[in-house]
Amino acid sequence: MKGRRRTTITMGILIAAVFLTAGGSMLYAHLGPQWGPGCWNPEERAAWITDRLTKRLDLNDTQRQELEAIVTELGEKRKELHELHSKTRDELLGILRGKTIDQARVSQMVEEHKQRIGDLITSAGDRLTDFAAKLAPEQRARLADAIEEHTAFFHGHMH
Question: Which residues, including other chains, have CB under 8 Å from residue 25's CB and lie 6 or more apart?
Answer without folding.
Answer: none
